[in-house]
């Protein structure tokens, strides 16, 4: 207890001892220390010495000649920035360093600061100059340059820049010859890169052929085929045969094709050896393909049977099905059901099924007298193998083959065989049956089988698309829209549902929603003309002419000869007042399809407005040939002659019109005026005829007025007949509404004073829009089972996408 101290003791100072410092570090009396002040005055502002030998002043201070100055404690000398003042403080003969730490590198001799001890290493060695490349390195560098040129040539060819591709191929060939010379000079000929030489020559020959330089291409191919160092070069004889075929040299083409077939015999031998030693599905498919190329029916059958004998060596699907109440086992199954090993097994199974079905579809049309018998042989062979499940898929493919041959009866009979089979196959067959009945416009049967397909498989999006198509045919657009939305909920990338949903919203007037669906499809299926057209037309309906013209121009890049697209662009530029640009597109439309009366009418009106009536004559004469019973076209021709100053020709044309249409009042009036201007006596005769015609018309009008009184039986029928005769009619069967900004086709008639067409509307042509009615129809899904979820979707009458 005596040793304990408490914080409350008054006599104890808790902070005592902290002010005690070493006398050398005590600065309280430095101001009164004369020695220190003298040292400060003489060394202030000087830097410590950097020489290895101390200066004279420092030497004198350290040699003991200077007496000891003031001290701050007994026996403690004073330090300055130059070292020790007073040299008797060390007994070992070494002077103290300028600091108390010898490790800093300073000594009392004033040596240079060198904490890393690098002073004795000497200067840095000179830089090593880069040595020249060895011959091997030069050759490898040149090989890389040649390969780069080949890649550039191939990329240019893929962009259809065939001229640039040929230039790069020629440059690569020149570099490769230089490479061979360098190898010979360096004595490295044994390391000749044959693959590089083959690539250079093969690419050069291809680019020659792409540029229609057939002679040069054949010469290059001959260089390859005659060199025995190139393996499998005989296959290039197919390319040589193709070139001879393009040149019209069919005998030589047949010769090269036969020479190429000789290569398949060797290939068959190799494939047979592989199938004997280690059979696999890919080699089996190649073997069947080689037999097919040789046209050997019996060997095709044997090769197909060999393919069916290949073992898959994977676990059954039942292994991954939970069949017990063991929670732990079910959790393990849930984990391994989608692990990498299971995915690899699925991939192997799909590869096996694809190989078998591809081989069956390849040989079925040729191994028997008819493709039906060939399919039956393949189906029986599959049923007798371990791949029994593929027989149903091949039967469905048989129905699709019937459909491609326009044999709807046999296709329907084949598909009806699956109605009572397992659920998945029945759903697929019912989907295809629904598609066939839609093609035959039997909507009730199509709806029946579409419902059957949906009930068999609730996740069959194609069945929902067909249901929507049936509702679309019945013009029940709201119901059709619901089915398309349901199909998209199952498969968001179903392009048929997206396209048909866009058309349905367009019919309902929901242009923004239709545009959204079609833009989504455009993101999935790029540059599909029907989709691009619908997007452009929707922008036109939304009065966004800038976007509409941009999409129409993009469509012209896909179908540059479509006259309707040129006409649409002409309408857009005409509505914006750009007559010159509109004329260019209308003229291109007329050039590709010179029978569109709307385009003919616009072009004739354009020249009349620009006071070039003589150029409009040819257009109106063509219209008169197309509609000879329409007096307006003949009057337009006569009016053009009159406006161009050819009065005699105009008079003759009016006389011909009068003989053909004697009751045309407008023609008689113009004949009277023109005859009077020319001073002809015939004017009086035409005036008398005009009075007779007017009198007859007045009598008709009076009878029509009396017949149109209330209670008259003939009033309604006459009114309807007169209305139908006076008004124009829309394009027959066209589902595409007219775009905003479309001018009336009678503008040309109103522009000519005295014309019989003033205020009238020209009759539309019978021209059917190639992207109008056809594209307005919804797509119908056709499911053709290939893999688990592989099917082909086809438009009404046409495939949706090329495979």
Largest sheet: 2 strands, antiparallel
Uncertain segments of ≥5 residues (pLDDT<50)? 51-94, 712-778, 780-803
The number of distinct β-strands equals 4
Number of helices: 34
Rounded average pLDDT: 76
Please state roughly what percent of the residues sit in beta strands, choosing from under 5%, 5-15%, 15-25%, 25-35%, 35-45% or over 45%: under 5%
Shape: extended
Query: What is the alpha-carbon Rg in Å?
Result: 49 Å
Class per helix and strand makeup:
mainly alpha
**Separation, N- and C-terminal Cα atoms:** 102 Å
Q: Approximately how much helix is present in the residues?
A: 55-70%
The main sheet orders its strands as 1-2
Helix/strand layout:
Layout: H1 34-43, H2 56-62, E1 79-80, E2 83-84, H3 135-158, H4 162-186, H5 194-210, H6 214-226, H7 237-246, H8 250-277, H9 281-294, H10 297-308, H11 327-336, H12 340-367, H13 371-383, H14 390-404, H15 408-416, H16 423-439, H17 443-456, H18 461-473, H19 477-490, H20 495-508, H21 511-524, H22 529-541, H23 545-558, H24 563-575, H25 579-592, H26 597-609, H27 613-626, H28 631-643, H29 647-660, H30 665-678, H31 682-707, H32 715-726, H33 747-750, H34 773-776, E3 794-795, E4 798-799
Antiparallel strand pairs: 1-2, 3-4
Pfam family, one: TPR_19
InterPro entries: TPR-like_helical_dom_sf, TPR_rpt
Biased composition (Basic and acidic residues): 692-703, 776-787
């Amino acid at each position: 207890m005596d040793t304990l101290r408490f914080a409350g003791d008054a006599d104890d100072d808790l902070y005592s001892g902290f002010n005690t410092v070493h006398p050398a570090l005590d600065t309280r009396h430095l101001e009164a220390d004369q020695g220190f002040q003298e040292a400060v005055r003489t060394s202030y502002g000087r830097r410590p010495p950097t020489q290895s030998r101390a200066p004279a002043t420092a030497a004198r201070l350290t040699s003991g000649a200077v007496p000891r100055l003031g001290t701050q404690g007994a026996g403690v000398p004073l330090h300055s920035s130059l070292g020790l003042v007073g040299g008797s403080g060390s007994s070992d003969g070494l002077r103290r360093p300028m600091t108390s730490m010898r490790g800093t590198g300073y000594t009392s001799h004033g040596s240079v600061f060198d904490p890393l001890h690098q002073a004795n290493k000497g200067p840095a060695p000179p830089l090593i100059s880069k040595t020249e490349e060895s011959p091997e390195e030069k050759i490898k560098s040149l090989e890389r340059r040649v390969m780069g040129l080949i890649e550039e040539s191939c990329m240019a060819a893929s962009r259809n820049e065939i001229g640039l591709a040929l230039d790069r191929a020629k440059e690569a060939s020149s570099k490769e010859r230089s490479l061979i010379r360098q190898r010979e000079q360096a004595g490295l000929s044994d390391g000749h890169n044959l693959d590089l030489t083959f690539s250079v020559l093969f690419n050069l020959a291809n680019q020659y052929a792409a540029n229609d330089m057939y002679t040069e291409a054949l010469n290059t191919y001959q260089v390859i085929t005659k060199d025995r160092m190139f393996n499998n070069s005989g296959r290039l004889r197919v390319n040589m045969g193709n070139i001879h075929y393009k040149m019209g040299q069919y005998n030589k083409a047949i010769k090269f094709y036969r020479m190429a077939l000789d290569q398949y015999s060797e290939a068959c031998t190799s494939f047979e050896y592989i199938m004997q030693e280690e059979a696999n599905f890919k080699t089996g498919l190649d073997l069947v393909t080689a037999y097919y190329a040789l046209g050997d029916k019996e060997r095709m059958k044997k090769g197909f049977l060999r393919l069916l004998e290949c073992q898959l060596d994977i676990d059954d699907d039942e292994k991954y099905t939970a069949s017990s109440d063991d929670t732990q086992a079910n959790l393990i199954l849930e984990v391994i059901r989608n692990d990498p090993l299971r995915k690899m097994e699925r991939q192997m199974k799909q590869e096996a099924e694809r190989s078998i079905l591809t081989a069956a579809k390849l040989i079925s049309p040729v191994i028997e007298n008819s493709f039906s018998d060939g399919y039956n042989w393949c189906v029986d062979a599959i049923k007798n193998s371990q791949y029994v499940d593929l027989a149903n898929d091949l039967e469905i493919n048989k129905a699709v083959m019937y459909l491609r041959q326009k044999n709807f009866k046999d296709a329907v009979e084949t598909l009806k065989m699956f109605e009572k089979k397992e659920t998945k196959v029945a759903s697929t067959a019912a989907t295809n049956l629904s598609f066939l009945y839609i093609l035959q416009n039997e909507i009730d049967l199509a709806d029946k089988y579409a419902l059957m397909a949906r009930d068999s498989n609730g996740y069959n999006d194609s069945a929902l698309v067909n249901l929507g198509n049936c509702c679309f045919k019945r013009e029940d657009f709201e119901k059709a829209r619901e089915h398309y939305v349901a199909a998209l909920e199952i498969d968001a990338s179903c392009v048929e549902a997206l396209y048909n949903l866009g058309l349905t919203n367009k019919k309902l007037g929901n242009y923004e929603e239709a545009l959204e669906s079609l833009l989504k499809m455009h993101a999935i299926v790029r540059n599909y003309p029907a989709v691009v057209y619908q997007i452009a037309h929707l922008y036109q309906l939304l009065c966004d002419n800038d976007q509409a013209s941009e999409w129409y121009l993009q469509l012209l890049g896909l179908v540059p000869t479509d006259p309707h697209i040129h006409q649409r662009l002409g309408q857009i530029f005409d509505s914006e007042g750009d007559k010159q640009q509109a004329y260019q597109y209308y003229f291109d439309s007329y050039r590709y399809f010179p029978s569109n009366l709307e385009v003919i009418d616009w072009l004739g009106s354009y020249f009349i407005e620009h006071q070039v009536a003589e150029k409009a004559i040819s257009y109106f004469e063509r219209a008169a040939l197309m509609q000879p019973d329409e007096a307006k076209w003949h009057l337009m021709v006569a009016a053009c002659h009159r406006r161009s100053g050819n009065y005699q020709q105009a008079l003759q044309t009016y006389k011909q019109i009068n003989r053909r249409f004697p009751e045309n009042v407008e023609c008689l009036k113009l004949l009277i005026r023109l005859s009077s201007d020319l001073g002809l006596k015939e004017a009086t005769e035409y005036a008398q005829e005009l009075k007779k015609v007017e009198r007859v018309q007045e009598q008709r009008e009076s009878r029509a007025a009396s017949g149109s009184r209330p209670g008259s039986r003939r009033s309604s029928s006459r009114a309807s007949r007169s209305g139908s005769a006076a008004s124009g009619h829309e394009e027959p069967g066209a589902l595409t509404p007219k775009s905003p900004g479309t001018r009336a086709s009678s503008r040309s008639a109103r522009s000519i004073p005295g014309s019989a067409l003033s205020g009238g509307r020209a009759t539309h042509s019978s021209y059917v829009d190639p992207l109008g009615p056809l594209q307005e129809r919804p797509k119908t899904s056709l499911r053709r089972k290939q893999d688990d979820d592989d099917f082909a979707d086809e438009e009404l009458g046409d495939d949706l996408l090329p495979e």
